[in-house]
Design brief:
The complex is a heterodimer of chains A (214) and B (196). Helix content of chain A is 42%, strand content 8%. Chain A is of the alpha/beta class and 214 residues long. Chain A starts with 7 loop residues before the first helix and ends in a 22-residue tail after the last helix. Chain B has a domain at 84-156. Helix content of chain B is 70%, strand content 3%. In chain B, α2 crosses α4 (88-105). The chains are: A alpha/beta (214), B mainly alpha (196). The A-B interface holds A 9, 13, 16-17, 19-21, 23-29, 31-33, 35, 207-214 and B 3, 5-8, 61, 65, 68-69, 71-72, 74, 77, 79-80, 82, 84, 108-110, 165-168, 170-171, 174-175, 177-178, 181.
């Protein structure tokens, strides 16, 4: 052992094993499960692209739009008392449960969160959006606004614009179709659907990168 | 911040350009390491030369350590890193065929191109065989498909499979690799060949 130069094999082994012990000792980094930064979420919140208004959702329900997936984020007891047609129940408490990930993280359906107001649905949207999930939206105003506008529409003043009147007619029709308390409208649903229904805005592309080596 | 492409820090095209340069570097290192010699490569099966084992396991543990440390420093999000899906029987049968081809031909697919790049005739023959194999597989795919798709396991990781943390898995692999390196070097002394 007169030779003081360290054998490179031993040196390399010592370095690798030391690094191995360090990485085995430190806890796994779970600080950044979110894929969008707070700033990106704030920008999306400001632009309001997550909202679908009640008329649009009502039209999708009446048309039996196959891509619409209503998601009730209220507790199960409230969901059982009343829910929108075709809605499924994912209580906010269980939002991150693995059984719902396939529903929330997909690129086929248009998921629309709703609760009584907008707050809980917005919370659900923010969470899944930060996880990078696409195609999730919020029913603007929640069920409260839904009842005000779709189920019990108020007749606008006769001096209102044609758009307002068309919207009212559509709401009356939708209310009928969805079992609300609206009175029979004197125009048919078909005519009234002329009211402009906005399309949901895209929230960015979904990307997957595959790789491999032989 | 990483992976760079998924987080749109670089474009797909820049990614391909990076891959091009990394690929050249990889090929250069392989060639310099002696991977263009089929006898040297086959040596791992006979014990007289363990360079394949040493290079690939060093590469594996370096990458494992690198990814976990990068994750620790927030440089890469491991949940976004693509992991090959496991189709168990494809892996088993494919592994056996690949191993047999490796012993007989003295190359694996990557190193055959490495050998071809410096004009080795056996590497060219190996590549022709590789394309014949690809052709047969393609033509017989409808027959092989049940086997090909059987036992789909998703993307399991060793750490999840055994319920241990990723860091401990890496430590175990490092210890196993170093033990193998010592064993392999012992074998090199036990089964020496003067010329190959």
């Amino acid at each position: 052992m007169k030779n003081l130069a360290i054998n490179p094999r031993i040196l390399l082994s010592v370095i690798l094993i030391s690094l191995g012990f360090i990485i085995a000792a430190v806890p796994k980094n779970t600080t950044t499960p979110f894929k969008l930064t707070a700033q990106q979420i704030l920008d999306e919140l400001k632009s309001g692209t997550q909202y679908l208004d009640a008329d649009m959702v009502a039209k999708m329900i009446v048309d039996k739009d196959p891509v619409l997936q209503l998601i009730d984020v209220r507790p199960q007891s409230e969901f059982e008392k009343y829910s929108l047609p075709g809605a499924i129940n994912i209580p906010l408490d269980n939002l991150l449960s693995t059984e719902f990930q396939d529903i929330l993280n997909q690129d086929m359906m248009t998921n629309v969160f709703y609760a009584n107001g907008s707050t809980r649905a917005n919370e659900a949207w923010m969470l899944v959006r930060q996880l990078g999930y696409e195609n999730n939206y919020v029913l603007m105003g929640g069920l409260n606004y839904w009842f005000e506008t779709i189920m019990n529409p108020q007749k606008p003043a006769t001096t209102s614009s044609d758009d307002e009147l068309a919207k009212y007619d559509f709401r009356m029709g939708a209310s009928q179709a969805l079992g609300g308390g609206g009175l029979v409208s004197n125009t048919t649903l078909k005519e009234s659907t002329g009211a402009a229904v906005p399309k949901p805005k895209a929230q960015g592309k979904k990307k997957t990168v595959k790789g491999g080596c032989s | 911040m990483g992976p760079l492409v998924i987080n749109e820090i670089i474009s797909e095209n820049s990614n391909l350009l990076l891959a091009f340069f990394i690929g050249i570097g990889f090929g250069f290192v392989l060639e310099q390491g002696g991977f263009s010699s089929s006898r040297k490569l086959a040596g791992v099966f006979y014990g007289y030369d363990a360079v394949v084992l040493k290079v690939f396991f060093t590469g594996a543990i370096t990458a494992m350590l690198g990814l976990l440390f990068f994750s620790l420093f927030d440089w890469v999000d491991l949940s976004l890193v693509y992991v090959n899906e496991t189709y168990l029987w494809s892996s088993v049968v494919g592994g056996v065929i690949m191993g047999a081809g490796f012993i007989m031909g003295g190359y694996c697919p990557g190193t055959s191109f490495c050998g071809a790049s410096i004009g080795k005739i056996d590497a060219y023959v190996f590549i022709i065989g590789l394309f014949i194999g690809v052709f047969i597989f393609g033509e017989a795919f409808s027959l092989l498909e049940p086997l090909f798709m059987a036992e789909f396991w998703g993307s399991p990781r060793i750490s999840e499979f055994f319920g241990i943390s990723e860091g401990v898995t890496v430590l175990i692999v490092i210890l196993a690799a170093i033990a193998m390196f010592w064993g392999a070097e012992w074998a090199e002394k036990m089964f020496p060949r003067d010329e190959y």
